[in-house]
From TrEMBL, chain A:
Record GO terms (molecular function): ATP binding; ubiquitin conjugating enzyme activity
Coiled-coil stretches noted in the UniProt entry, renumbered to this chain: none
Entry keyword annotation includes Transferase: yes
Lineage, broadest ranks: Eukaryota, Metazoa, Ecdysozoa, Arthropoda, Hexapoda
One Pfam family named in its UniProt record: UQ_con
Domain named UBA: residues: 161-199
This protein's UniProt keywords: ATP-binding, Nucleotide-binding, Transferase, Ubl conjugation pathway
Alphabetized PROSITE patterns for the sequence: UBA, UBC_1, UBC_2
Protein name per UniProt: E2 ubiquitin-conjugating enzyme
Family per record: Belongs to the ubiquitin-conjugating enzyme family.
Source species: Spodoptera exigua (Beet armyworm)
From TrEMBL, chain B:
InterPro entries (alphabetical): Ariadne (IPR045840), Cullin (IPR045093), IBR_dom (IPR002867), Rcat_RBR_TRIAD1 (IPR047556), TRIAD_supradom (IPR044066), Znf_RING/FYVE/PHD (IPR013083), Znf_RING_CS (IPR017907)
Keyword terms: Coiled coil, Metal-binding, Repeat, Transferase, Ubl conjugation pathway, Zinc, Zinc-finger
SMART domains: IBR
Region (Disordered): 1-22
Source organism of the structure: Spodoptera littoralis (Egyptian cotton leafworm)
UniProt GO MF annotations: ubiquitin protein ligase activity; zinc ion binding
Enzyme class: transferase
PANTHER family: CULLIN 7-RELATED (PTHR22771:SF4), CULLIN AND GALACTOSE-BINDING DOMAIN-CONTAINING (PTHR22771)
Protein name listed in UniProt: RBR-type E3 ubiquitin transferase
Length: 199, 423
């Protein structure tokens, strides 16, 4: 790995460790290997959002040309959010693309991703289905996002109705994650979701 | 009908009819192109040197009248879409506003330089004070980091719009600042090439030529290069399959009747004037010439394919992946392709001199069949290692049969007369 990249990551790692956010438990950063090319981030779901109480893991890959190119980051924890792919976890955030600046750090990036959870940008979506729901039925979106946070990120809000519906599809022999995506996509209507899954 | 022959009618349309929606389609051609076709406009073709001269004139004008560096002049011209007069007027009114709008000066006051030079914010190193530099915004970074930043940006094709490395700073690095940090000749050259392209794109009166050899993908418009002999093209960006000769979708070439090779004579020609006939004759000549030349170029590229195939086979044999005999079919296919392409190339002069009639129709039919099969073969040879061997050999057989059929039907006549005259 390039000298500058390793040196930068080491310094940024220390910066995050000393930060007040780590002390307050709102972000975390761990090393995955000794060569400083892969890290794992962790952010807490911001308060007063459907993600509150959840813990979201992020995969961070540091390119050879870091910090002149942005780090590659995706959600490892499944999340229902207009700017994150519900399938791959890819994130649509300007500072991870063309608005990246070499002077930005992992700490600022993690905080920006956390901020994205409080303020979605439905007009610049990564997941068109989620974005459409966000724009057209914010109440159902919030419920769905809370449900996902509960199931995948350890959030506290249990929505029994959704759990039961997912169970109905599981009993039909459908994979749990697939069932949840289909139900979330088709406004939790079992008939439309199954029609989609079996078509 | 061609654009030229429309001019024959241009005397008649002083009346300014509104043809849209009122007349039959067949009358559309009688309308002046500038009125009937909103995309039609007059243009001149320029060579690269002429474009450079044109751009340099604007740069010089601006840098002389405002007493600024050519580098700065370029940034402002790019920002104001090459309207030098507008820049001069605005600059005299409010120079600061022009520089802020061009993103070479920040709106907010410049940072205190001394506070930001304890260590480089990008690499965390602490080089001596004189090894730092900054744009007008005062965000100081060490020179090594600037050099790396520019290298990464240039490699990604960015030139005019490279920004400062600080967060949320949108200031752009002018050419002289970039070049003072970039030392590698290859990078400097690349940078200047991209600058040139960017300038042409930002200039309201310049466009890149959409003609052959400057071709864009007909679907996604990205620039493409023909890197092999095959006329069945596939865009590297959007995977669109199309024909190099007519730029149409390749789908209409595969199963249906292939007729890019055939020249279609204008049926109304006999009623036209002598001038129109002369133009038609030139058009006919160019049709055949262009195709002849295209296949000549393809033939050259097939030679490269042949050479690279040979070295690949050698590599395989050296690596113990079979013997030369196992791979010889690849070599044979490339050689056959070359032979077919050669024949095809010279069918065009032959067709040009043929008289109209059923025999020419038959010839052009067979020529089209041959061409279609050759493009299929060429496509498969270029992807030889991923194509099934049986499939490839089958294609070789088809192409060779088409070639010999065509030659038998049309070449035999000459050879027999030639040999009989010898006797």
């Amino acid at each position: 790995m390039a000298n500058i990249a390793a040196k930068r990551i080491k310094r940024e790692f220390k910066e995050v460790m000393k930060s007040e956010e780590v002390a307050g438990g709102s972000i975390k950063l761990e090393l995955i290997n000794d060569s400083w090319t892969e890290l794992q981030g962790e952010i807490a779901g911001p308060p007063d959002t459907p993600y509150e109480g959840g813990t979201f893991l992020l995969e961070i890959k540091v390119p050879e040309t870091y910090p002149f190119n942005p780090p590659k980051i995706r959600f490892m924890t499944k999340i229902w959010h207009p700017n994150v792919s519900s399938v791959t976890g890819a994130i649509c955030l300007d500072i991870l693309k063309d608005q990246w600046a070499a002077a930005l750090t992992l700490r600022t990036v993690l905080l920006s991703i956390q901020a994205l959870l409080s303020a979605a940008e439905p007009n610049d979506p990564q997941d068109a289905v989620v974005a459409k729901q966000y724009r057209e039925d914010i109440r159902l979106f919030n419920l769905t996002a809370s449900h996902w946070t509960n199931v995948y990120a350890g959030g506290p809000t249990v929505i029994w109705e959704f759990n039961q519906k997912v169970q109905v599809l599981i009993d039909m022999g459908i994979d749990e994650d697939q069932a949840r995506v289909a139900l979330s996509t088709f406004e939790w209507e079992i008939e439309r979701a199954t029609e989609h899954l079996f078509s | 009908m061609s654009a030229e022959s429309d001019m024959e009618y241009s005397d008649n349309d002083g009346d300014d009819y509104d043809y849209y929606g009122e007349q039959d389609d067949c009358d559309m051609e009688a309308v002046d192109r500038t009125k009937s076709d909103p995309e039609y406009f007059l243009y001149t073709c320029l060579r690269v040197e002429e474009v450079e001269k044109l751009l340099n004139e604007s740069i010089e004008l601006l840098s002389n009248s405002l007493q600024i560096t050519p580098s700065l002049a370029k940034v402002t011209l790019h920002a104001y879409e090459w309207n030098a007069q507008e820049i001069i007027n605005k600059y005299k009114e409010n120079a600061n506003e022009v520089l802020v709008y061009s993103r070479v000066k920040s709106r907010s006051p410049v940072l205190q330089a001394s506070t930001s030079r304890s260590s480089c914010a990008v690499c965390a190193n602490t080089p001596p004070m004189h090894k730092y530099s900054a744009l007008a915004c005062g965000h100081y970074f060490c020179n090594d980091c600037w050099a790396m930043h520019f290298e990464v940006q240039i490699m990604q094709g960015v030139s005019n719009t490279i920004t400062c490395m600080a967060q949320d700073c949108e200031l752009r690095a002018p050419e002289d600042f970039v070049l003072s940090h970039v030392t590698k000749p290859m990078l400097r050259e690349r940078y200047q090439q991209f600058m040139f392209k960017d300038h042409v794109k930002s200039h309201p009166e310049l466009r890149f030529c959409p003609g052959p050899n400057c071709q864009d993908c007909p679907k996604c418009q990205i620039c493409i290069e023909k890197n092999g002999g095959c006329n069945h093209m596939q865009c590297g960006a959007c995977r669109h399959d199309f024909c190099w000769v007519c730029l149409g979708d390749w789908k209409s070439h595969g199963s249906e009747y292939y007729e890019c090779s055939r020249y279609k004579e204008d049926p109304n020609m006999s009623s036209d004037s002598q001038h129109a006939q002369a133009r038609e004759a030139l058009k006919k000549y160019l049709h055949y010439y262009e195709r002849w030349e295209n296949h000549a170029r393809s033939l050259k590229l097939e030679e490269q394919t042949l050479a690279s195939l040979k070295s690949r086979i050698n590599q395989k044999v050296m690596a113990g992946e079979g013997t030369w005999i196992d791979w010889q079919y690849l070599w044979d296919s490339a050689k056959l392709l070359k032979r077919c392409r050669y024949t095809l190339q010279y069918t065009y002069p032959y067709a040009y001199y043929m008289e109209n009639g059923p025999r020419k129709e038959l010839f052009e039919y067979q020529q089209a069949q041959l061409e279609a099969e050759i493009e299929n073969l060429s496509w498969k040879v270029e992807r030889a290692e991923t194509t099934d061997r049986g499939d490839l050999e089958n294609q070789m057989d088809i192409a060779e049969k088409r070639r010999t059929t065509l030659l038998k039907d049309f070449l035999e006549f000459h050879t027999t007369t030639a040999s009989s005259s010898k006797v």
